[in-house]
């Protein structure tokens, strides 16, 4: 019988919706990250970086951490210039959402050992961006962090937009973001909505990965957490992500198609 990780890897490769969680829902963070590690072992897709998201207080008794992390793969990362427009891919029949996020890109390997949020600017750049949150399992967010961690962190893509001037980073309340869907404002926020600011997410990630024998390398990206909300979308819908004073871009929601494997990379067919 296929393991939970095998089921999720296959469902994503086949762009096949899942009616329910495949197997036993992980009851702890350690159990959930064990499934995530098996996913990383099984998939041929190459890592581009990681996403970080907050864990809601209602789940903290069972999953005792302020944040969770999940992998972001190279084949699902797109660079978007100011004023650009891209297609983003989600799983038909599954969970589908977009999020305005601040994205960090490492310019050097992360230091070993504990790192504070104040240290991050010394080896990273900050960008406007967006996470495409999607899973073959429509109920993934309702099931909570155990399910999210197990299935690729509920990530299906990352958009990296214009760079944010270094002098602006840290003044989190002034870094505003907006999400519009179908031309209608769906949510507005700022970088301060990420607890401690985006660099705090990166510091958490560095420590979390170290506990798993992993680390961040130069060129890796980090999706630091939603700033305007988690906005459900439908296939065919159009949206816009704006960062006033920095830039903005448009996107169109498209269904993932089944994938074939070429070398060490998954390729859309």
Give the termini separation: 28 Å
Query: Sheet with the most strands?
Result: 8 strands, mixed
- Measured by DSSP, the beta-strand proportion falls in 35-45%
Mean pLDDT: 94
Overall structural class, as computed from helix and strand content, comes to alpha+beta
Tell me the overall shape. globular
CATH arch. level architecture: Alpha-Beta Complex
Helix content: 10-25%
CATH topology (level 3) name: Fumarylacetoacetate hydrolase, domain 2
What is the number of domains?
1
The CATH class assignment is Alpha Beta
Compute the number of strand runs: 15
The whole-angstrom Rg is: 17 Å
Helix segment tally: 5
Low-confidence stretches: 260-269
Q: What is the H/E order?
A: HHEEEEEEHHEEEHEEEEEE
CATH superfamily: Fumarylacetoacetase-like, C-terminal domain
